[in-house]
Amino acid sequence: MLAAHPLGLRIASALSLLILWQWAAWSYESTLLPPPAAVLDLAWREALDGELLHHLGATLRRVVLAFALAMLIGGTLGVLMGRLRTLDLILDSWLILLLNIPALVVIILAFVWFGLNETTAVMAIALNKIPNVVVILREGARTLDKDYGEMAQSFRLGWRKTLVYVVLPQLLPYFAVAARSGLALIWKIVLVVELLGRNDGVGFMLHTYFQLFDVTGILAYSLSFILIMLVIEYALLQPLERLANRWRR
Amino acid sequence: MRSSNHSSVSPIAGGAEPSTPGPEWPRLVDTEAPPACCLPLLEVEIAHKGFRDPKRGEHRVVLEQLSFSLQPGELVAILGPSGCGKTTLLQLIAGLDRGFQGDLRWNGQTEDGHPRLGYVFQNPRLLPWLSLRKNIELVLDGQSHKRRRVDDLLEAMGLIDFADMHANRLSVGMQRRGALARAFAIQPQLLLMDEPFVSLDAPTARQLRLLLLDICGRTRPSVLFVTHDLREATMLADRILFLSTSPARITSEVAVRIPRESRQREDLVERAYAAVASRFSGLYP
After folding, report:
1. Where along chain B do its domains lie?
2. What's the rounded Cα separation, in Å, for the pair A238 and A177?
3. What ipTM does the predicted assembly reach?
4. Do B123 and A166 touch (CB under 8 A)?
5. Residues with Cβ < 8 Å from B252, sequence gap 6 or more?
6. Nearby residues of B26 by Cβ (< 8 Å), 6 or more positions away
7. CB B119 to CB A151 under 8 A?
8. B77 and which of B211, B216, B237, B262 could share a cystine (Cβ 3.0–4.6 Å)?
9. Domain A53-244, what fold?
């Protein structure tokens, strides 16, 4: 019955999580596990107060900038590495190194070397995401269909038409995968960056509430931001992906 | 040109031919040349084309000492055993592969130094993320009345009702017609076709062959098409070139004298086919 209604199933699942939380809060009765209503209440007051929106905005701006930067640089590099074997050989060891450096190391070194400023913060976030995009897009570029390439060449489509109509449509699914996995990664890293070296943003506020041992504050801020990321995922990324895949059977 | 000597066709199924440039293969020529009214559109002279075998690292010769020319408006079929390098030959002519020794001489080029070339591949290769109409418009370059021209072509191909469908939703037969329409859209000087009617049911294939003849009659491109079907070659071509097994050379050349306007007549095609086939029996079943 429920399986026939995917949306109903989703809502039921979310509700059961909420009920579980409420039940746990009732049974423990501790300030360290506030009930959902208390968290919602604080989030609402903070939002009206202006503080919450300011910090959400700061974090969101960093996410968007770092995301765009990582997709652009990582995408270009990945496609080039997928097509040019020499470049791939040269950069492959760098890539493996970057993939395996812990995010925290990149962030700390960036702040130490380039100072505690906004540019460094965004660059540090992007740098953590770039190798991931490179790997996905390199794979995409390797699977480009030679048949279509020959078609483009024999009909002399020129590089611009070839890129827009022949190459990019084939890479789009890979961009979509990189985008969705990338957003999840970036927003986890952005909080660490803010915690270590910024004085606004959700990460900064989590740090503050942590020092006060205020779990209600921690939950109010993190859940608000999760909500925004969910909206981006469902209202922006998924419809875009569906639009791009419309032609598939 | 030597006159014909039908009994001197060399056996092709010999396999290991000496790769040294020894005596020429006896070459059967059954025509007093195509009307030499004008300069040939294309003169092909391939001295050597080989590939490195990726598994064993050996050099494998695909084409050797292969030369022919193509007159403007001429329909030429290339027939040969499978895997003998027919597709490679078309790719060299299309400029998709420049790694060979030899020469392609074009006459009557367009201003940018390249001939206008239409290519109908073995698989249709329409872009599945574009509609049929967009697929054809894509290869047209800023020409005026683009939409009108594409519509006319689609109409002639019987595809006008499917113009706005994504290419991958069409049946294979429709996709092949779409690929033909795309190649014709640019009004090519040379149309290269690589087994364009293979794996189609007989009526569809016949319909497309007639369509090809019809359009060729109107726009008069030179056509070079690869096939392994001698009957198809007899029906469509002015001239048939027979290739040997690899390394491929032209072993013989036959002019088919069915007038263009009678090529839909199956009795004429059948008679010509019987005549050609009897000479090449055993070589091309």
Report:
1. 128-187
2. 11
3. 0.77
4. no
5. B9, B27, B28, B29, B30, B241, B242, B280
6. B5, B8, B9, B10, B251
7. yes
8. B237
9. MetI-like fold (1.10.3720)
